[in-house]
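Final report, results section. Input specification for complex C-07:
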Amino acid sequence: MRGVIMHAPGDVRVEDREVPAILEPTDAVLKVAAACVCGSDLWPYRGVEDVDGPSPMGHEYVGVVDQVGDEVRTVKVGDFVVGSFFASDNTCEICRAGYQTHCVQRQPGAATGAQSEYVRVPLADGTLVATPGQPDPELIPSLLAASDVLGTGWFGAVAAEVGPGKTVAVVGDGAVGLLGVLAARQLGAERIIAMSRHADRQALAREFGATDIVEERGDEGVARIKELTGGLGAHSTIEAVGTQESMMQAIRATRAGGHVGYVGVAHDVALPGEELFFSGVHLHGGPAPVRRFLPELIQLIWDRHIDPGKVFDLTLPLEQAAEGYRAMDERRAVKALLTP
Amino acid sequence: MRGVIMHAPGDVRVEDREVPAILEPTDAVLKVAAACVCGSDLWPYRGVEDVDGPSPMGHEYVGVVDQVGDEVRTVKVGDFVVGSFFASDNTCEICRAGYQTHCVQRQPGAATGAQSEYVRVPLADGTLVATPGQPDPELIPSLLAASDVLGTGWFGAVAAEVGPGKTVAVVGDGAVGLLGVLAARQLGAERIIAMSRHADRQALAREFGATDIVEERGDEGVARIKELTGGLGAHSTIEAVGTQESMMQAIRATRAGGHVGYVGVAHDVALPGEELFFSGVHLHGGPAPVRRFLPELIQLIWDRHIDPGKVFDLTLPLEQAAEGYRAMDERRAVKALLTP
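Structure output:
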């Protein structure tokens, strides 16, 4: 089969690889219907994170179950499934509390890399969710989005305690931030302020439910949010970048007693204790427990209530994966979908 | 009248001062029945915080209303009242959300210093709560505790989402930590692990409801908490110190999806973003909105359901305030009560 390997920063190749086999009785192997390039794949691509030798890439995936181990019960060969980027047993105390990304058995969900024709998924029962039937092709991008970026934006909104009557600010206009806007709308937010300075992303943010756009960043961005909220700040802020600037922007844009949901993978962030203390905000986030939300998100997509697949503005055959990375790195694309 | 002035680190004097007068129509002046020395008073006393010239001290107080401004409606001359260390209007949007310490009109509650015979309190209607009648003298220490340390420990427990069935860890065995234990018990925690290496404080922690004591600190303390919780960590951790070590201890002692309520005033704390991100905990805290809890706490004390006044293990006449500071600084006393 063919699959993506990153050899070094900037060096992504599609190569011949072994088709993965069942290793544990709880494994499944999927024939991948679609995969994609994640914003977090750009960290090693840009050399911000180390590349430890040739690495199979991709952790977002939808596909058809091709093989299952002897102990797999909830999905069967032929099912179309959506999985999470972390595998979880979905039975431990942490999973039952809704934190499957911190499962006591947590391990990578796409164990052999999802940017590939086939992928092995461990703990299949606790990680995969089958769709109600074989999806129409036009639903596939949205189902793929549920695997990570939608689930992550959704968790950001849930962590920020978005709800009816609230004003929500969204820091970050990548796929996760844009889908944070969509989640905030679905969760009933009254006002959704997207922070973006790119016309195309602003347009998509508005389509997903943003009521206001703030182009300013940093202290000026915070000042604009305060202006829009009677001087108080947002009730809920979704942070979807992961830098020091974006985290401080999120904390400062939020009123005392409000909630910051942060889902941008933190890089070189140090939060000043005194400022955080006197801010009075709630802070929650981390790697999104996508599995918690999958049944609900799949249904919303299946019923065509939401169309998160719109974040894919570039679709390429798997063989052209390197162009997908380049396009996202150069910000020519929000998110690239790869079809094996 | 007599009142406490801090002139420099370590230099606390009781001096003749002007009796405060009503300045704003929303002010009240109280005849102080009891005041005390706060752990946070030790920061300037120890030179960790600057002392900006001679400073009137004390922000915890109970007393009898002596004068009120023309616009004061909810308390009247002769009422026995408990106040918060921050004055709040209790009507703005932030107050109505329960965050009175971040009131848009926030200012010091004991404007002229509470370690004194009289004190002026601004925004009296939004800051003071009258007791159901004149209290028996033995209730005064507990009512005084409600003014700050109990309210703060209580907020720590609320911020940590303490509740039935949960295991709670408490970092810090000062008055706030000990009253965090009491709060956790009142809020229905199943198991309460107090972290303390002082026999007298351990005894009080047990009296307030601690079910386990952990003497180890830092990584060893975290390892003990994990041992006691099936490897997962506490559901809820109350942080009542405010140092880098105590904050990291609290975060690391808490399971993913659990809650850290931090009420120790942060000093030189920088939270590493990556570790926080992957911890999956909720973080909330800051200066406690004591006013939110005062009606409930006063009633619990009035009905003799709780006895938080036990944290005062030293009672001195106001004239001997300097000895109260010394005793707390040298850890000879948990908390010193001063009677004018």
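The first strand of chain A starts at residue 2 and ends at 8. Residues 290-302 of chain A form the longest helix (13 residues). This concludes the modelling results for the funded period.
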